[in-house]
Amino acid sequence: MRPHRPGSRCAILLALISTIVVDLAPAADPVPRIARVGYVDPTSPSTGFSGVTAFWTRLRELGWIEGKNLIAERRWAGGRVERLPALMAEIAGRNVDVIVTYGTPSAIAAKKATGTIPIVVASMGDPIGSGIVTSLAHPGGNLTGLSLGWADVGGKWLQLLQEIVPRLSTVAVIADPSSPMSQAVVKELEEIAPTRGMKVRFLPVHDPEALDRVFKQARREAQAILVPADPLTLQHRAKITSLAARYRLPAIYPFLEFMDSGGLIAYGVDSAVLFRRAADYVDKILRGIRPADLPIEQPSQWVLAVNLTRARALGLTIPESILLRAEKVIQ
Asked: What is the distance between the alpha carbons of residues 158 and 228, in angstroms, rounded to a whole number?
């Protein structure tokens, strides 16, 4: 008979326990099954936010690689808000795991298209005021993402214009009246302007063909313009900045993308930051977190950009106080 060896039994028992523990331990954040992401852009591939590239880059960093474990269904509305409901319905019918978009009109169209598929909105104006959600902290339902939180920004836009344009008394706001965000911005500006000794003149534009006429009117009735972001203005921003230059109208814009087309000044949020964060939300949802449990975030960092070349062409001198605050200065 072989002698009893307690050490051998202990070793076998420890090995069994270790095997059980390894089997029960969670994997180190494995990427789940192949995911299908539906992306609906209210503009076009060439005129959308530059930050969209950051969205797909961030997904790759998180392990979601198109052609390997990610299938992307992409659609573009070409700046036509009326196309959004049909595009959202089409994407919802493609058996996607999550719908990604940006803008308040897109968010509303997505909510109407599906009440079950998770929706991540990279940026929207006022989701509570627009009736998209009832709470930022607890959005509930199937939609989450990022809100630009335009409250109080309108006053900042007017202040910057006053610092740049001498004897400014009237600002023309050029926007699509069908955009909920534009409506909210105009309302806020009309309330704030009198407190700054100014007037706001809202000039609605329904299609790009009307832009030239609207700018002619702005030239007669105002000394500067403000262009809120909506699908139409984003889609045609190159034409808008060109018309502002032709009619010698100082203009302020809400996104840096307008500066790439020759804009004078922009004060807003870096779209790359928004879209990278949206990718984080998509990753969480694909790994099992409900959109109802993801609070709608608001950006904390705003970016000021100034185009000195455009300022000189308009005969304007940008105050040193603005240049010192600007994160981006185009010489």
From this structure: 12
Taking the alpha carbons of 258, 260, 263, 266 in that order, is the dihedral positive or negative?
positive
Model pTM score? 0.85
| Strand ranges across the sheet with 143-147 | 70-76, 35-41, 98-101, 119-124, 143-147
Domains in the chain and their CATH numbers?
A: 35-148+271-293 (3.40.50.2300), 153-268+302-330 (3.40.50.2300)
For residue 42, is pLDDT > 90? yes
Q: What is the pLDDT of residues 126-152, one digit of tens each?
A: 898 888 999 999 999 999 999 987 667
Cα 154 to Cα 239: distance, rounded to the nearest angstrom = 23
CA dist 148 to 105, 113, 122, 195, 296, Å? Answer: 14, 23, 9, 24, 10
Q: Which residues contact 216 (CB under 8 A, 6 or more apart)?
A: 247
Provide the 3-class DSSP secondary structure of residue 35: strand
pLDDT (0 to 100) of residue 17: 38
DSSP tag of 4: P
**43 — phi, psi (to 5°)?**
-110, -130
Q: Give the residue ranges of DSSP H helices in the chain.
A: 6-24, 52-61, 84-92, 104-113, 153-164, 180-192, 211-221, 231-235, 237-246, 271-286, 308-313, 320-325
* Nearest residue to 129 via CA among 274, 296, 275: 296
Q: How confident is the model over 198-204, as a mean pLDDT?
A: 95
Burial status of residue 309 (CB atoms within 10 A of its CB: 0-12, 13-18, 19 or more): exposed
Q: Measure the CA–CA gap between 157 and 140, rounded to whole angstroms.
A: 33
The secondary structure element, H or E, covering residue 203 is strand 199-204
* Beta-ladder partners of 73: 38
Residue 31: predicted pLDDT: 57
DSSP three-state, residue 81? helix
pLDDT tens digits for range 156-191: 999 999 999 999 999 999 999 888 778 888 888 999
